[in-house]
Automatic annotation (TrEMBL), chain A:
InterPro entries, per database record: 2Fe-2S-bd, 2Fe-2S-bd_dom_sf, 2Fe-2S_ferredoxin-like_sf, 2Fe-2S_ferredoxin-type, 2Fe2S_fd_BS, Beta-grasp_dom_sf, Diverse_Oxidoreductases
Designated name of the protein: Carbon-monoxide dehydrogenase small subunit
Keywords: 2Fe-2S, Iron, Iron-sulfur, Metal-binding, Oxidoreductase
PROSITE patterns: 2FE2S_FER_1 (PS00197), 2FE2S_FER_2 (PS51085)
GO MF annotations in UniProt: 2 iron, 2 sulfur cluster binding; metal ion binding; oxidoreductase activity
Domain named 2Fe-2S ferredoxin-type: residues: 4-80
Membrane-crossing segments per the record: none
UniProtKB/TrEMBL annotation, chain B:
Name of this protein: Molybdopterin-binding domain of aldehyde dehydrogenase
PANTHER family: ALDEHYDE DEHYDROGENASE (PTHR47495)
Organism encoding this protein: Bauldia litoralis
GO molecular function, one term: oxidoreductase activity
Domain Aldehyde oxidase/xanthine dehydrogenase second molybdopterin binding: 3-269
Pfam families: MoCoBD_2
Amino acid sequence: MARVPVVFTVNGTEAAEFVEPGAMLSDVLRDKLDLTGTRVGCSQGTCGACTVMIDGELILSCLTPAQRVNGKSVVTIEGVATNGELDPIQQAFATGFATQCGFCTSGMIVAAKALLDANPDPSRDEVVDAISGNICRCTGYEPIINAILSAAAERRVAKSA
Amino acid sequence: MARKRGRGLSAVNYPTGMNLGGDPSQALVHATTTGTFVVTLSSVDLGQGLKTVMTQICAETIGVPPDMVLIDTADTDTGPHCMGTFASRGTHRIGNAIVMAANEARAVLMEVAADELEVNATDLEADGKGAIHVKGAPTKSISVIETALAAHFKHGKTISGRGMFMAERSFPEPETGKMRPATCYAHACTIAEVEVDTETGEVEVLSLKSAYEVGRALNPKMVEQQIIGGAWMGISHALYETTEPYYPDRAHGPVDFNEYLMPGPGDLPEFGGVILERPASDGPYGAKGVGEMTANSPIPAIANAIFDAVGVRVDSLPITPEKVLRGILANEGALEPAE
Ligand code: FES
Ligand code: FES
């Protein structure tokens, strides 16, 4: 089948690729653009590992045809840090021991970023809700919830300073 | 139709590693020209933190800062032999191998430093910050980097060491079957509190509190991480996970994450964990295996708590709502533990 062009912005940089019709965004990110921070755990929308943002909205990149992001702006885990500085969420995951094997971590952090961008002062229940589409096999979730709550506090302080 | 509460207890003796074939693991340590100590292993870090703890053990034994240690878990074609990362054996088995290899490498390091400083190697100590100095005379010193350079380019020596762990074999006595299957045991105690819905058979774990005796917590934050992750896995094994819900019948087995049940972030109980340290005489710096028992001790505690709540003794996992309801039915709704 003839390949189709897709042009979109990823982490602030323009990307232009020819892809198979129906190729999933997760595969284009990982295999064509070498953005392998996005993980694929199931390819069927049930684990959340492949979570990225499109125009600020969370989506599962394993279920999103790359053609759908034509002209849009995608943020992956590689775009969460700014100028080499870790986002407070990433920092909190590291200092709070909220990652073990790391397979869920990219999706968790992107989901947490979407939450905190929209709601800078979430309750514990709101944090639980925000990550309930992301499976973690290792941590027991507790350190992840705590890391997101402490990152939220950190971001609020940074903003008011 | 009610929600009944119950409390259950479990106590566990957990062997570190296994007996089979002496449960061996090997490690090789060598210094690069600029004094980075490379630890070559075939052991795998799958998220449990092996690389961090092995770095600590090597750094401590040689007397250098952790950032002068590089763990190379190469591959099983080229690395020294390791039985594998399982049976809570990594810290203990591989750690022991690294202590032995690092001590051998340290002896060469000290010999070279002694030659350079024109003193006796036994009078030297490493300061843990990247220098070696004469005991009691910190100014008479040489850096580890200079020592490594001298070894490579002046003395023609390799600063290296070989280490291995191998347990003494124990064979069963033919008459009694008695044997010593393990040399090192960790211990655990867990108390679970549950609430059981007598109408739906659903079990909610309210709290899970544990004490773990781990020999020595070489990295206390990572031990804590194992305890919390393990508690969640224990709940998951006790109440949710199975590939064959009607074993041995394969019917209704889950095929994806929609059907393979696990507790989510909204199903967490109150966690509590206490670490007790009684150093093991045969462990690296006293450590025992911690990992797996943290996922095991919650299971019998939860099963006992369900019995305490509604008098139903379920002896197969997971303890599904269906099994709980069938148990209540079989007891004719007595809802009390039988004496
Ligand atoms: S890989 Fe997309 S949800 Fe699992
Ligand atoms: S850290 Fe392993 S899946 Fe979350």
